[in-house]
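Title: Comparing notes on inverse folding

I've been comparing how different people in this forum approach sequence design from structure. To keep things fair, I'm posting one structure and asking everyone to reply with a full sequence. Here's the target:
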């Protein structure tokens, strides 16, 4: 049987005062004086100040409804101090009077890197604008994160899956963070971003999720004009070169040699040959069939690896180009994995794109738990393809035609001494240096 509601009549008689304070006053009045809590005393003091003309904001309507249900006997009273705390923290994050929960999520980003100094922001530096500068500003302006946390994104548990270098693009970048799940969140974030940066997807993840640490592998692509594989004796700067089938087969045979685990210390900087972190596992690397763009033939190279070091992919491609063009012999690949120092050219950054990041282990554990979605982005594939066609491929093609970055770079290949070898000091390298591509550096 419901309790007698008569002790709650003071609530019903309150007009023009805060119902929450009235509720606490009525409740504590029914208790012995010795049991009156500090919260209740403070509430009485606040009520007294109200009588002096101070204004107290009413709680939201659903809080009033809760108090009404309590007055009708639907639920226990509990302790006044506990209820006071509950009411105090019930609506920490509001916009236009509505409550928005703060949750751990991942965002799927696509961006054209031209004009930006990479992915990772440099707080306090306005000279070198990055992708994250734009993203954080959009998150603040859209109301997804507090303005005072914009300069300290660690407070929002922010973590990128991979750093990308100056000019490098992405269509599958993933960042994890806590934010307020406002209405129409993707549209509002994108409304504050330039067109060459888009948030294509959002998914809830576990509270302890870290986009860098939970990533099992990364897939990159590299788009280049096929003239890069032409013999060094041939010019073809007019774009008339076409990649022959036999040359493509040789290119893919050389790329397949990278598969497996090798010591890639020669493909980055600041790593010695005996540094364990220089050993990286490559799952696949292949050059796809060529295609035409604006009268020039291009091809796309895809490489999937567990992780990559700074400049590793560009040097892997640069070395194969040097071999195919005739500047170096095929034996240089085997030598590059040894302890000797080998001079390896680094291909331009223009054509490099972060295609996808993989979370197989996370998906196996949480993808079908009934609460979280698998991080596979299958529903966003059309958006990704459309972004590539509108922003990534045109930028690469137009820039290559205008600036001829690949053509200019190929002219520097003859200054490399591919036969010379040397040894480099082992030393005690500072392992905290951020020179890994996946969250600790960039390619």
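Reply #1:
Here's my take.
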């Amino acid at each position: 049987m419901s309790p007698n509601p008569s002790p709650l009549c003071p609530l019903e008689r309150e007009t023009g005062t805060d119902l929450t304070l009235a509720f606490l006053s009525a409740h504590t009045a029914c208790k012995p004086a010795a049991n009156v809590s500090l919260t209740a005393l403070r509430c009485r003091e606040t009520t007294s100040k109200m009588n002096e003309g101070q204004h107290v904001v009413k709680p939201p309507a659903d809080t009033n409804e809760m108090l009404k249900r309590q007055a009708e006997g639907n639920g226990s009273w509990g302790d006044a101090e506990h209820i006071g705390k509950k009411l105090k923290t019930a609506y920490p994050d509001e916009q236009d009077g509505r409550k928005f929960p703060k949750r751990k999520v991942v965002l799927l980003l696509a961006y054209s890197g031209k004009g930006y100094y990479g992915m990772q922001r440099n707080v306090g530096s306005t000279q070198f604008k990055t992708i994250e500068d734009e993203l954080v500003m959009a998150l603040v302006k859209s109301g997804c994160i507090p303005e005072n946390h914009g300069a300290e994104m660690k407070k929002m548990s922010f973590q990128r899956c991979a750093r990308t270098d100056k000019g490098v693009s992405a269509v599958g970048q993933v960042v994890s963070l806590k934010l307020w799940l406002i209405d129409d969140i993707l549209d509002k974030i994108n409304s504050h971003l330039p067109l060459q940066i888009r948030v294509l997807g959002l998914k809830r993840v576990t509270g302890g999720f870290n986009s860098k640490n939970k990533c099992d592998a990364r897939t990159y692509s590299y788009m280049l004009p096929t003239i890069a594989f032409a013999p060094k004796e041939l010019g073809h700067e007019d774009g008339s070169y076409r990649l022959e089938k036999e040359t493509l087969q040789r290119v893919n045979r050389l790329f397949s040699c990278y598969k497996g685990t090798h010591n890639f210390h020669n493909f980055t900087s600041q790593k010695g040959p005996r540094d364990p972190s220089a050993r990286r596992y490559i799952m696949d690397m292949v050059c796809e069939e060529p295609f035409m763009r604006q009268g020039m033939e291009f091809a796309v190279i895809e490489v999937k690896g567990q992780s990559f070091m700074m400049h590793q992919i560009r040097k892997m491609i640069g070395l194969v180009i040097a071999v195919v063009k005739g500047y170096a012999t095929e034996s240089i690949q085997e030598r590059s994995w040894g302890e000797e120092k080998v001079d390896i050219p680094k291909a331009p950054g223009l054509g490099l794109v972060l295609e996808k990041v993989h979370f197989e282990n996370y998906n196996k554990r949480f993808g079908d738990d009934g609460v979280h979605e698998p991080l596979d982005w299958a529903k966003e594939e059309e958006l990704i393809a459309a972004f590539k066609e509108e922003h990534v491929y045109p930028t690469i093609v137009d820039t290559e035609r205008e600036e001829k970055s690949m053509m200019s770079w190929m002219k520097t290949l003859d200054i490399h001494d591919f036969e010379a070898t040397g040894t480099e000091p082992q030393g005690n390298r500072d392992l905290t240096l951020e020179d890994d591509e996946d969250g600790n550096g960039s390619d």
